[in-house]
Amino acid sequence: MSKLTIVATMELKxxxxxxxxxxxxxxxxxxxxxEPGTLQFDVLVPEKxxxxxxxxxxxxxxxxxxxxxxxxxxxxxxxxxxxxxxKMTGVRCASA
Length: 96
Fold this sequence. Notes:
alpha+beta, globular, 4-stranded antiparallel sheet, 4 strands, 3 helices
């Protein structure tokens, strides 16, 4: 099985990035601490796009990502971010 990498972009309602960023930083810490299959989780802040946050995640394999996606921390994130997120897009990448 190969590692799975996710590159995601979150589009946010104007003026909410600092609040969402705090939620995502806490989420990152929980994932790295509590999910053995989460190998890397970076929260990126685009310099010229005030309404976006990007995420770079690396998982041991697809099953580890599924556990993450269905897990407790993701449920917390969905609740805490609520309607501040307008849209999220992501690209699944296999390690070369």
